[in-house]
Amino acid sequence: MSGDNEQKPVLYSYWRSSCSWRVRIALNLKEIPYDIKAVSLIKGGGEQHCNEYREVNPMEQVPSLCIDGHTIIESLTIMHYLEETRPQRPLMPQDCFKRAKVREICEVISSGIQPLQNLIVLIYVGEEKKKEWAQHWIMRGFRAVEKLLSASAGKYCVGDEITLADCCLVPQVFNARRFHVDLRPFPIILRIDRELENHPAFRAAHPSSQPDCPPEVAK
User: CA geometry: angle at 168 spanning 159 and 175, to 5°?
Assistant: First the structure.
């Protein structure tokens, strides 16, 4: 490990961003101290679109992580980098098939659900239809996740150890509740979410615990 590791990583994050939240959970589980640089996705039309932040992340999205003298964007890429460079407290199983199952769940959430109910898409869909749109795509994705979990879950998404799949699932459940999705058809998802809601690493990463969380929302 290089001397750059002595410098605390900086996470560009927005309190309610589920992609930022995934990374916060992973950093907490691996006990990696980090600083947050808040990027408001709504203030002034969105700070992510300013020239300064575009230099950090050309996609104009959060999260971005400055670590080891590098800047890395995209939440799954960041989490896999943390796993590869800091293998202590692993968040991926040793077994190759189980690793594939973790990636499968992560991909369904990060590619098949979250982008379709992301802020930028909902603005395009429009105020009148955004709730119905978000509910449709979350329900569709959760039907797939629930089916996958029926074969892979133990205490958590894949077996009895917390993995990157759990880091992705919990923020997506929060999003589902925000859009008033009926979660009763997804008992395994609900059980895993309940299992993790009071875990210290997950609680510390929760939107209401973030420095940029509005006071009226913070617990």
Answer: 130
